Amino acid sequence: SSNRIRTLRSTVSSLSGFIENIIADEDERYEGFRNIILKVPAPVKENLREKVFLTEDQIEVLMQYLILKEKWREALYVHLSFVTAARKHEIAQFKKSDFTEDTLKDGFYRTLPKHVKSRSSLKTRQFLIPRTELLDMLLEKWISSRTDDLEDLFVTYYKGECKPVGNSTFNEWCDTFAKILGTHVHPHGFRSSRANGLKDDGK
Fold first, then answer.
1. Buried b (16+ CB within 10 A) or exposed e, 62-74
2. Which one of 62, 97, 141, 144 has the minimum C-beta count within 10 Å?
3. pLDDT tens figures, 91-101
4. Which residue, 47, 49, 56, is CA-closest to 193?
5. Each residue of 43-64: pLDDT tens digit?
């Protein structure tokens, strides 16, 4: 992309400038070195994709479609992604044992700590997820339909093998959701849509 090229150009230019202004004075091998990157025009910065925030109405349409088609796993993923505003690698860490009577307190399921990314480090976070009839229904439908004994909440089956869902699978689901809604859908979009909805509500 043009933005990536601009970043690489800036990095190489800075390095070349350091060689020209500092190293060349100390190492005769670089005598006469010039930063030719400055002669290379930077590409025009472009917005690769307009940010798309799904509305609560769109989430509802998607949920109704998935439930109608009995896509319990995908419906559960959409619901949890929107309600928790969790990233896909955080959603992938959810376990069946996070949603039991033992983890229920004051109307919220309290998950075990999950690894989350911050700007500077890797931390842990406990998710508090409101218990609703919809959530309990999706959990019951999805878990009861499974034939495996894995503890992971989200799993996928391929050639008779069951394994935890990875990022690529979440991306594939979102490609399917995009076809249903007729708009771009990305796993991170649920998180952004949730935050945008709270902003619109003044929360």
1. bbeebbeeebbbb
2. 144
3. 999 999 999 99
4. 56
5. 666 655 555 678 888 999 999 9
The model's pTM: 0.71
* Residue whose entry in the numeric block shows the structure tokens 């690489």: 8
**Residues 203, 193: Cα–Cα separation, whole Å:** 14
Cα 99 to its chain centre, rounded Å, is: 22
DSSP string of the chain? -HHHHHHHHHHHHHHHHHIIIIIHHH-GGGTT---GGGGSPPPPP--SS------HHHHHHHHHHHHHTT-HHHHHHHHHHHHH---HHHHTT-BGGGSSGGGEETTEEEPPPEEEE-SSSEEEE--EEE--HHHHHHHHHHHHH------BSSEEEETTEEEE--HHHHHHHHHHHHHHHTS---HHHHHHHHHHHHHHTT-
**2-14 pLDDT tens trace:** 666 667 767 767 7
Asked if 13 and 38 touch (Cβ cutoff 8 Å), the reply is: yes
Encode burial over 128-165: b for 16+ CB neighbours within 10 A, e otherwise.
ebebeeebeebbebbeeeeeeeeebbbbbeeeeeeeeb
175: tokens are 């490609």
